[in-house]
Amino acid sequence: MIASLSKSTLKQYSVCFNQWWQYCYTNNHEKFDSSTSIIIKFLTDQYNNGASYGTINSFRSALSMLLGNDISQDKSIKRLIKGVFRSRPSLPKYANTWDPQIVLSHISKWTPHTELSLEKLTKKLVSLLALCTAHRVQTFSLIKLSNIIISDSGVKINIVDLIKTSGPGRDQPVLYLPYFNDNLDICPATTLVDYISFTKELRSTSSDHLLITVKRPHRNATAQSISRWIKQVLQESGVDAAVFSAHSARHAATALTYSAGSATQSESWPPIQEIATSDGPVQSPASQRLVARAGPPPPRHSSGTWAGPPVGAPSDGPCRLFLRYDLLPFSGDGLASEVCGLLFLPLC
Length: 348
Known about the structure:
Blueprint: H1 7-26, H2 36-48, H3 53-67, H4 75-87, H5 100-107, H6 118-133, H7 137-141, E1 148-150, E2 154-158, E3 174-178, H8 188-198, H9 223-237, H10 248-260, E4 276-277, E5 280-281, H11 285-292, E6 319-328, E7 336-346
Antiparallel strand pairs: 1-2, 2-3, 4-5, 6-7
């Protein structure tokens, strides 16, 4: 059973287990007593100590696994959880998002790559990956050099390690970054290729991870380090880093895609609400809240595809960035897709 939990979930549950064991010891209860009254008193104590709705819900899940009974379906406990939500509701972290163009304009000045420091080149790469793929930093920390395929058209990255959204019957994400020849200063594929060349002599011969730390000794970069780098870029670009975290890059990229819309050269893309990305279906409640911050959807062609200029439309001025999706078979209802590249459209 322990193997079914991720490290982060196990770490989260361990907090509950410690609190539960301390509560049972103090009140002379058996640790594996699954009486509803005892569980309710325990959760009530946690609430009185300032625990949030999310924490109480997490404790309920942890106790359900530990005690074996289906605590989540107990009517009294469900009523308690509902009361916690009504009296201490869990609110969204963000009510709006920021414009990716702010960050793109800032990092576009970081050229040429051969004259940048390792720290600056690394920050530019992770920022472009975050905006161009809308994946979590966990995904970036798992990119391996052996799973990167560089071709004349772009860079293909296979993610073989389990990520947060991995599950039975689900395909692992495949990231494709095409070369953006109209503006190589913000081309993620070019930046990635230059980063690999830059770090070739710095990385350990036994290291297969793409991203390494910027200070000696150059170890594999963790998700926490990548988050810190992205947040530093946000702050340097003028985004309020006190409000927005590195994870907000996913919100900004997907919200901008939704608000502006996109059309392929074959005009075969569906509206974003019908797309399920490699991180999960967009029609999920969380994703609906994400794209809702972008405002109303754009106009559509009579054929049902989004109105907009063709992919890779050249521009003499700055460009906006949009995610590009390729449709894939989906095991459930609806469609699935993989984030396979970028769509750059001129600012109007």
